[in-house]
Amino acid sequence: MTLNPNSPHQEIIDRLISTLSSVSAEVAGLRMAVVRRVPPPAHISEKELAIVRLLAEGYTKPEIAGQLGVSTDTVRTHLSRLRARWNAKTSAQLVSIAKDAQLLPPPPRTQ
């Protein structure tokens, strides 16, 4: 919304829009911080953990299936159930949650 640039109200409107944009960004950031700090359930099966670890290493679902000797559908099912339990919308969020919970090994050190 733009008024006459010489209007005394234009500066107030501009400041209000700027403030609302900042507040919106902060709320979105807080929402992600809260979601990321929710710890995953104490129980995660060895198969689920293996899938998340391979996912974190960059393997695709078919590659994970081949590594573990299961079908791609089985990998999808495990990931879907984990996303539901951990309230994650994406596989990337699963990896992030697993990292936060220290379920994944630290990245290798480069020299």
Describe this protein's structure.
By secondary structure, the protein is mostly helical. It has a domain at 46-100: Winged helix-like DNA-binding domain superfamily/Winged helix DNA-binding domain (Arc Repressor Mutant, subunit A, Orthogonal Bundle), CATH 1.10.10. Helix content is 67%, strand content 0%. The protein has helices at residues 8-37, 46-56, 61-68, 72-86, 91-100. Helix 2 (46-56) packs across helix 5 and helix 3 crosses helix 4. The longest helix has 30 residues, at 8-37. The chain starts with 7 loop residues before the first helix and ends in an 11-residue tail after the last helix.
Question: What distinguishing features does this structure have?
Answer:
5 helices, 111 residues, Arc Repressor Mutant, subunit A
Give a short overview.
The protein is mostly helical and 111 residues long. It contains five helices and no strands. It has a domain at 46-100: Winged helix-like DNA-binding domain superfamily/Winged helix DNA-binding domain (Arc Repressor Mutant, subunit A), CATH 1.10.10.
